[in-house]
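Tutorial, part two.
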Amino acid sequence: MFLQSLRDRWHEAFEPIGNLVQIAREPYRFLDDLRRRGGELAELRMAGMPPVLVCSEPETVRQILTGSYDQFERHAGGVELFVDPLALILTDDDHHRQRRKLLNPAFNAESVRAFGPTMLEIADRVLDGLPLGITFPLIGPMQDITMRVILRCLFGVAEGPRFEELRALVIEYLQLVFGPDMVALGAVLTPTRAHAALTRLSRRARAAAPNAPFTPSRLPVQRIADRLGRIHALLEAEIDRCLAEGPETRSDVLALMLRARFADGQPMSREELLAQLLMLVIGGYETTSLSLCWAVHCLVRHPEALARVRAEVAQVMQGGFDPARVRDLHYLGAAIAESMRLYPIGIGVSRRLRKPMRLLGRDLSAGTVIMLSVYLIQRHPSLWSEPDAFKPERMLDRKPSAAVHFPFGGGVWRCLGAAFAEHEMRIVLARLFTRFVVEADPEHKIHAQQKGITAGPSGGLPVRVAPIS
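Running the prediction step on this input gives:
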């Protein structure tokens, strides 16, 4: 009895830490094991987070994913550590609905197509610099493309010294904020309070003039806060520049946001504007670059699919590459969708129950957090034939419902920038595969690794490239 009690206490104390380590090392394998052990509504405990029920039962996932504000609220699962409480991703009810409506025009099909030439220019420039004949991690160039696209298309930042400083600062901030210092602070204070502390510590750097020299602290948390403050200072300078030039003269997302008005005619406050801009960076940087890597991983291992992609690009773009026509690259779009089915960069989306519910034979109280497993649903054997196989054709035959294929999340909280990311990915992959032969590193066995809030290929996807003669 004593030994059993001791084992139970040991398990209760260290299981959350062990789960955190395992999910970081191999998140997909961890989820497969969790379902085998706990079924389709399995409890998951991780250090620094409340217990979560991981759901992979298709009908229950559909019920929750399509639920309304009065049934569920968004549970960010630790994202509160990285973004401001005003960010769209953390809001609910009418507050969320109003802001979603306000921001939607900046990411509709017409707005996204207008960014195509800039996306193409940046992609080609970065691809021009790929190292030839040596093995290198593809994640680096993909991150470079996505960050430059964000700064140019979303923020309207002109290339130059400020552009390069902001690019470097955002990358450094994201690396540090996903690091052990902030994770530990979040575990001690809760993610929301940790971010509030970071914001308070960032005020000194934010108050400095944007053209003043910047020397960040070396202290563990202060060095993150200083970068956050400097980013805010530079973005505020860009807001001032946009207002001085006239938002109506520009087509970047920042200008569209400055022109937008709520139903009462009021604009978004500057603090909220900054919160949404940083949310878009975090939501679009790692996610898009990692999704690009997973798509490359799938295509280079399936030569017949890659040959079909190249043939389609050659046919559609025979008069010259037109970024507006990437919407006609249907097979490439299917290959991207299929790679995101197999390798979703977000392993789950979470909801918190607002009222008691009975799910899968269990009575759950209000406040229970349920994570809908994107990975497990998108490989569920009852939903997909050959669920572990890469078959882009399945995405051409019939578009899957949003309840079984939701790599961008679903319901009222579906990713705001999904169309933007898909358009960018089509451009980048079309240019990469029509300009280069890409080979996987045979010495490196790829598996998923958790990077902050996303799951990417191990080693950053080592590849070798050579120009197509």
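Residues 15-156+250-438 form a domain with the Cytochrome p450 fold (CATH 1.10.630.10). In part three we will examine how such features are distributed along the chain.
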